[in-house]
Amino acid sequence: MNYWLLKSEPDAFSIDDLKNAPGKTEHWDGVRNYQARNFMRDGMHKGDQVFFYHSNCKEPGIVGLAEIVSGAYPDHTAFDANEKYFDPKSDPENPRWLMVDVRYKRKTKRLISLSEIKQHPEQLDGFALIRRGNRLSVMPVSKQHWDFILSLE
DNA sequence: GCCAACGTTGGC
DNA sequence: GCCAACGTTGGC
To answer: Which domains does chain A have, with CATH numbers?
Structure first.
């Protein structure tokens, strides 16, 4: 089983939006970064565990837990000119972009903020979230880092 | 294949 | 709102 952190801007799609979705499940569309796509394509499997992270907001940090409930499949929003993340270069015959389905599990008991996470550089050495300049919206989390972060809760 | 210009991300 | 960091684009 693998562990992941998924970033979302709460103004666009929050942990509550996922909780309130039908079946508490939503497809994670709109990923338009090759490295993030490759993580989804090559590393994500049904049953993988997810930290749901709120970015670009007043208090960025981990707000909940979710689960991957599908492998990667074509992101159809790339084919639709009315969609925000339309990509005319993604060919339906050979889709450039992929998405997975994510199901809500629970909120964390409290916000595990980015600033708090940064206070543990030894325990979280190598964690992509606190590497300088990191902008990935999909990133792997090691089992060790996962367990440590949950222990902060 | 290089690299300048540009657009985006996302913390602060 | 600012701006550093980074990815992508496209001219050459």
So the answer is: 3-151 (3.10.590.10)
